[in-house]
Write the structure tokens for this entry.
Amino acid sequence: MAYLTDIEIAQQTQLRPITEIAARAHVEDKYIECYGRYKAKVDLSLLKETTRPDGKLILVTAITPTPAGEGKTTTTIGLADGLARIGKDVTVALREPSLGPVFGIKGGAAGGGYAQVVPMEDINLHFTGDFHAIGAANNLLAAMLDNHIQQGNALGIDTRRITWKRCVDMNDRQLRNIVDGLGGKANGVPREDGFDITVASEIMAVLCLSSSIADLKARLARIIVGYTFADKPVTAGDLKAQGAMAALLKDALKPNLVQTLEGTPAFVHGGPFANIAHGCNSVVATRMALKMGDYTVTEAGFGADLGAEKFLDIKCRMAGLTPDAVVIVATVRALKMHGGLDKKSLATEDLAALEKGIPNLLRHVNNIRNVYRLPCVVAVNRFPTDTDAEIDFIVAKCRALGVNTVLSTVWAEGGKGGEALAREVVRLCEQEKGDFTFSYPDDCTLKEKINAVVTKIYGGSGVLFTAAADKQIASLEALGFGACPVCIAKTQYSFSDDPTKLGAPENFTVTVRNVKISAGAGFVVVLTGDIMTMPGLPKVPAAERIDVDDDGRITGLF
């Protein structure tokens, strides 16, 4: 049986005018700024002027990702459409895709099958230009920093201690480490430099955590770009850069409104990676979605140990949000891979491999229920090769933890395949009240916060700090940043910092090699393992399959 590709499904769908979607989301025309017929930005004044109460907030997260796939974004969209089909007033709040993964591995990140946000080509490519604005603001600050040094360096900036990098929204390993300023005195001061991918830029985190233009400017001004010869931090405010940067970002701060294939309003805005940043869509988009729907479904990147941990410990802490329910997405196939099965053998029933792999799911479930104290449900994306025995095994294991399991077929059936999940989510929101708590308090030390995440959420035995990390932590606490939450950058493929440790490893330590402050975002970034802030393209990048014909019709996006 031949299946349509994601892009073929999207291109065959008759989209509704964005003004119609806005009306469905209770957004008046005066707040809408159309970008063509099917995209719009929503003015921030809506948040100040609406009298609608907040709806219920549903977080969708997942098990530790594998090459077999889990379908977290697809489930998020299908669940929202399922809620709409059972008569609920619902909105979606998602991240924007980065061009790096789109042209690298994923080939698109707007859902899949019959559970997508559209127009998927626009969303996956330039969309409304938010990422370009973020890159421009990032690189303006870099240019002003180097120009200050070139023009006499009145602040006494030590060029060996510049921490600010340029960025580009592309996987380009060649730019990780460079030397610039060459060619003589007129061309700048020669120094070692490098690029991050745009979604790892602190500007992305700042934009996603800002609540207003004034808050945006204040956060931008606090960004630390380097240190002086006297060991004092230098900020964007010291360089008088925040006003111009905010001018570049003023439209990017407004949430984008699009739709699902079934016409559910979707606020798609911001896109920090969860393995190297905080992995959540913007605070203003989430707040807007909550005001405009009785139920809002959002997601956090990668597995629950990364995206959900940062959503709960960073975003909810800063924005005062409390989820009403959590959905943990899993597949039989992925759990069998966690049990050691090769990807080529996943179509065959193997309860032994499933038994070895299911502790990964159960640890995520335990974290949500017993660390964060939130009601949750497991959503199993069912594949045709999954057997009843395998499904029953997962159901029994989750039931032993007091958690229900619901089968989801949203990829093949859209909202219809998410109705059962929607009903369980409504039950959780209405009948089971959580007692939300963070995994660590504000007033403990940075090392205690890192250790809490590693031991409580990852299941590790402790943390090893390199000498450099020890020194950096002491310096940051001396500068007054000890009260900040921690944003741990690590591999997405394991609870540990070793991507080869699948399942639910135990008795491991996590090595912290570098610690830095994102003062504008308001968190401390903790780098572990071999995680990089500029990914590279794979051997066969998805870009090789993407094309456009003479009529402007794009192909190759998954």
In short: DSSP finds 20 helices and 25 strands in the chain. Residues 329 and 370 are 18 Å apart (CA to CA). The chain has a mean pLDDT of 95.
